[in-house]
Write a structure and sequence with these properties.
Helix content: 25-40%
Order of helices and strands: HHEHHEHHEEEEEEEEHEEH
Distance between the termini: 131 Å
Structural class: alpha+beta
Number of helices: 8
Radius of gyration: 36 Å
Largest sheet: 6 strands, mixed
Strand content: 25-35%
Shape: rod-shaped
Number of strands: 12
């Protein structure tokens, strides 16, 4: 055989191999692109950003559709019980948010499969979620449960680490940055859009740390009256968001016994006020008249009042 003939045969074989490789990896590429176009059309209606294909998500979705056809089952879990999120993690996908839709049609009907997913609240929520920016679509056609021509559709949604989500504080309490209260316990809380570490500090000293959380709270009891700086630092990947409160703690005013108007003198004005609460149960506004703190304003208190009158 001549050298030229050998070269021609080699090129023919190489061409055949390349065709086989191409068809094996892109057999349903056109249909998968069509399904992505349908999804992005739905998202555009609601002002959402379009999804883009991710190679890892595509591979995992294709393998799952293929396995469901070949092993004749229908589930988000693999045949061996592996969950869809575990499949993605095992494939090396860096996850922030992930989701999965699966659908089955016999005979194959991509548009009907899409419409069926959109009619299902849970699947529709995945398609229209702002938490996803990339997708993998796997379509596989074959014999399934006695049907010669069935199509399995798997959609894997994700928001990979390739696009960093900006850390934001979504909820906080109290909502005012300056608050005033007495010395009672006060609860502060924040919630974020992504998991992070939340570090609480009081007057610059760390008092509590919650790791890998979406929300955190801190209950504080001030040791005394005064002004306190309460800080919650949400710490994500190379990003910190700080929330601060100025807490004004007011000491309870202690009134002089018998001095109803708190003017520093016990005189006829206070006697008039005392007469109004005489023979009554002590309340928060009449503690000044309860000299012996027994919960009643009576003759014993009147006797004590008389001793300090005009002083």
């Amino acid at each position: 055989m001549s050298r030229l003939m050998k070269t021609i045969i080699f090129l023919i074989i190489l061409f055949i191999v390349q065709i086989g490789i191409t068809s094996a990896t892109s057999e349903y590429a056109a249909e998968e692109q069509q399904m992505l176009d349908l999804i992005n059309g739905e998202r555009a209606i609601y002002g959402l950003e379009p999804l883009r294909f991710n190679a890892v998500l595509n591979d995992v979705a294709s393998e799952h559709s293929k396995e469901m056809i070949e092993l004749d089952y229908f589930s988000h879990d693999s045949y061996d019980g592996t969950s869809f999120s575990e499949r993605l993690a095992n494939a090396g996908y860096d996850m922030v948010y992930v989701g999965e839709n699966i659908a089955l049609r016999y005979p194959p009907d991509l548009v009907a499969a899409h419409e069926g997913l959109m009619a299902s609240p849970g699947h529709r929520a995945n398609i229209l979620s702002p938490n996803y920016n990339e997708i993998g679509i796997g379509i596989w056609v074959g014999e399934y449960s006695g049907y010669d021509n069935a199509a399995m559709y798997t959609q894997n949604f994700g928001w990979g680490d390739s696009t960093t989500t900006a850390l934001q504080v979504m909820r906080l309490s109290p909502t005012d940055s300056i608050i005033e209260s007495d010395k009672s316990a006060r609860t502060f809380s924040i919630g974020t859009n992504v998991e992070c570490d939340i570090i609480w500090s009081l007057k610059g000293e760390t008092i509590k740390v919650d790791s890998d959380v979406l929300s955190s709270y801190c209950e504080l009891v001030p040791p005394a009256g005064g002004t306190y700086q309460v800080k919650a630092t949400a710490s994500g990947s190379a990003q910190n968001v700080v929330t601060e409160w100025t807490w004004l703690v007011v000491e309870e005013t202690v009134m002089l016994k018998g001095d109803a108007n708190n003017d520093g003198l016990i005189n006829i004005l206070d006697f008039s006020a005392f007469a109004k609460v005489y023979n009554s149960t002590t309340t928060g506004t009449s503690k000044w008249a309860d000299f012996n703190d027994d919960g009643m304003i009576n003759i014993l208190d009147f006797s004590a009042f008389a001793k300090v009158y005009n002083k």
